[in-house]
Specification:
single chain; about 220 residues; mainly beta; 13 strands
């Protein structure tokens, strides 16, 4: 048995792998405004320890990039379907308000196959914020998949520079219907509703922006 166990370790132990997931690469349309957004992440490592990176951002086709972020994280499996993650996040805003944050969070597959990603962010200015996302793949056929998704943003304090109020800052709810041409490539269409609350809504309205928005989205999802 010792020889068999050693052969098993050689063939299957400490396997390293990598993956890149383009969760969203899309254009959105609302009240004559055309914008774009992306949400990409990837990892490299083994079953227990991994290096994980995440990037997302958005902007307008006419006005350029509004905001983009990049996270670099150490990820460790703490349950069969959940990882603990910690690292740093750099957020870039062309109009000012760049931030560097310490990140602590969890990511994984909750009961009933809900994909969950939640994290807290502590900036170098002492600002504490949090974000939680959940999505679910509802398979309609072998090719058509409906993906409901929700995201909430929270803040421990008002951050006027970023137009963020304390408490529940915003809620985003949407659904995307995709067609898997291949498992690794699927175009989609969907709709997304965003609502800001409390002082966040007040900040936006003071800037002449709406605190509520509904958008049609068109994009692709891919992984390799």
């Amino acid at each position: 048995m010792a020889a068999s166990r050693e052969q098993l370790r050689v063939e299957n132990g400490a396997i390293r792998a990598s993956s890149v997931i383009i969760d969203q690469l899309e254009a959105s349309f609302s009240d004559g405004e055309e914008a774009y957004g992306f949400d990409v992440q990837g990892w490299t490592g083994g079953d227990i320890n991994r290096f994980w990176w995440k990037s997302e951002g958005e902007g307008e086709f006419d006005g350029g990039l509004e905001e983009a972020e990049l996270q670099a994280l150490y990820s460790r499996a703490i349950r069969p379907f959940f990882d603990f993650q910690a690292g740093v996040r750099q957020t870039y805003r062309p109009d000012g308000g760049d931030r560097t944050d310490l990140v602590v969070g969890i990511q994984g597959l909750a009961p009933y196959w809900f994909e969950v990603d939640a994290a807290a962010f502590l900036s170098t200015k002492g600002e504490l914020t949090a974000r939680a996302e959940a999505e679910y793949d509802q398979r309609i056929t072998q090719k058509w998949i409906l993906q409901p998704r929700a995201e909430v943003l929270l803040s421990a304090e008002d951050i006027p520079e970023l137009s963020v109020g304390s408490g529940l800052s915003s809620l985003q709810v949407g659904a995307r219907l995709r067609y898997e041409i291949r498992k690794e490539f699927a175009p989609y269409v969907g709709v997304e509703w965003t609502k800001s609350f409390g002082n966040t809504a007040d900040f936006l309205e003071a800037e002449g922006r709406s605190s509520e928005d509904t958008r049609l989205v068109v994009g692709i999802r891919a992984w390799f």
